[in-house]
Design a protein that fits this description.
The protein is mostly helical. Helix 1 crosses helix 6. It has seven helices and no strands. It is about 55% helix and about 0% strand. The protein has one domain.
Length: about 130
């Protein structure tokens, strides 16, 4: 899991820039009742910002329910407590940005997962 998380963090490090937040006049209930008809993520711009090698995977992945849930949870976090998995994902993105700067260059090759042992220690304590 840790290796997948690390790779997804690298691939989606800038996803927040493409999430289309509802207007400030929209409340949570309005958004929930209309979200199926709203565009919540700028897919075309996101894909145009990605390395060519990632496009076959990303163009399909951003159409999945898993990705839609990520975007929905990100939008909902403006009104409710952040979902725990999203909190972990966003924290890892912040760590990546802290390490490489705000303009994280997307790695075209695999970068070794360095957080595996830390996560394993936390799991062992359970």
């Amino acid at each position: 899991r840790e290796i997948f998380l690390t790779r997804f963090v690298h691939i989606f490090a800038s996803y927040e820039h493409f999430v289309i937040q509802p207007s400030q006049s929209t409340d949570r209930e309005q958004w929930l009742s209309n979200r199926e008809s709203m565009q919540n993520f700028d897919k075309a711009t996101f894909l145009s910002d990605q390395p060519q090698q990632h496009l076959p995977f990303l163009s399909r992945f951003i159409e999945t329910q898993m990705f839609a849930t990520l975007v929905d949870n990100k939008i909902l976090s403006a009104w409710v407590k952040v979902e725990p998995h999203l909190r972990v994902f966003d924290r890892r993105i912040k760590q990546l940005r802290k390490r490489y700067g705000e303009n994280v260059a997307r790695s075209l090759c695999y970068e070794r997962c360095t957080s595996y042992h830390d996560s394993q220690r936390l799991l062992d304590k359970r």
